[in-house]
Amino acid sequence: MNASEARHTLGLAQRLSEAEATIEALLSGEIDAVVDSRSNKPVLLFRAQEALRESEERFRAVAELAQDAIISATSDRRITFWNRSAEKMFGYTTQEILGKSSTILLGKWFGHIEEHEMLGRGSRARAGDSAGILEIDARHKDGHEFPVEISSSSWTRNGERVFTSAMRDISERRRLQAELLRHLQVDHLTGLLVRCVGEERITIETNRARRHRRPLAIGLFDIDHFKLVNDVHGHAVGDAVLAHIGQAVNRLVRTSDVAVRWGGEELLIAMPETTLEGALECAERVRHAVSELDVTTIGPITISAGVAAHVGDEGALDTVRRADARLYEAKRLGRNRVLA
After folding, report:
1. Per residue, what are the HEC states of the chain?
2. What is the pLDDT of residue 15?
3. Structural domains for the chain
4. 151: Cβ–Cβ under 8 A, 6 or more apart, which residues?
5. Do the beta carbons of residue 161 and residue 75 sit within 8 Å?
6. What are the pLDDT digits (tens) for 60-95?
7. Which residues belong to the active site?
8. CA 231 to CA 123: how far, in whole Å?
């Protein structure tokens, strides 16, 4: 159900409620009933009853065919309508849920329900207002929570606020969004962050270290003779080497570390809450792990590294430049070593 279809269904629910209210007003005497002189029957009541029957049939037909969950509730959150898709989505049968509080359907989002005036609560929405489309966490009968997209409409019937909501399970959409985000943020060969994302993260860590006067270290790594690997063995083998090294780095770093593919064969690790000595130990572990990788087509692989600790009020790239200078020196002195 798209947004237009959802609005149509919510509009049918409103017209159904209005027809019910008209009949109640006629029966209570709030509205004078005009009597037909020939049939002696109350014309307005008859027309209202016909309108109610037609509105109810149309609403139920649309709601029962909808793939989205259609739920109606009173101002005290008591559920009054529940379609087949709601049964499938939440696990409650119609018999189980009618008359129950709609709060049992809400997950962690429940604390914001009064603010957003959804599912039978609120005071700011005018009759017929739509609360727009929100994404919230809903709760299944078995207790697990899942994301839904919800659009609601509210109106007043005989002085009481009533609500109808259309809900769509967006778990698959969230999964695809997370997968797309990962593809955008993570290098597909190494499994490390891409450089643009890595620079943002390193800047954040540098600002935090500077603000709280906490240690931060940067390690910059370069695969030794990598151009020769590509030239002699081909780029497919070079890609395999990068993948193996990326896996090794990901196994060794902490969740708080920021591991980045910095360039073609350059890798960077930002290590929050780490002194220069601790960063040297980490870099040596990476160097040792790389030297033990088994890429049978090319033999041993080595890596060189330069390490620098953040000092004073310098920026993130200033620390990286100092690490790069130490990396250059490690290369000059024969490679397969770490300098700080």
Report:
1. CCHHHHHHHHHHHHHHHHHHHHHHHHHHCCCCCCECCCCCCEHHHHHHHHHHHHHHHHHHHHHHHCCCEEEEEECCCEEEEECHHHHHHHCCCHHHHCCCEHHHHECHHHHHHHHHCCCCCCCCCCCCEEEEEEEEEEECCCCCEEEEEEEEEEEEECCEEEEEEEEEECHHHHHHHHHHHHHHHECCCCCCECHHHHHHHHHHHHHHHHHHCCCEEEEEEEECCHHHHHHHHCHHHHHHHHHHHHHHHHHHCCCCCEEEECCCCEEEEEEECCCHHHHHHHHHHHHHHHHCCCCCCCCCCCEEEEEEECCCCCCHHHHHHHHHHHHHHHHHCCCCCEEC
2. 55
3. 3-174 (3.30.450.20), 186-339 (3.30.70.270)
4. 3, 6, 7, 10, 130, 131, 132, 133, 134, 165, 166
5. yes
6. 666 666 788 888 888 888 898 888 899 999 999 999
7. 265
8. 71
What does the block give as tokens for 273? 């809450």
Q: Is the pTM of this model over 0.85?
A: no
41-55, 151-165, 189-203 — which is least confidently predicted? 41-55
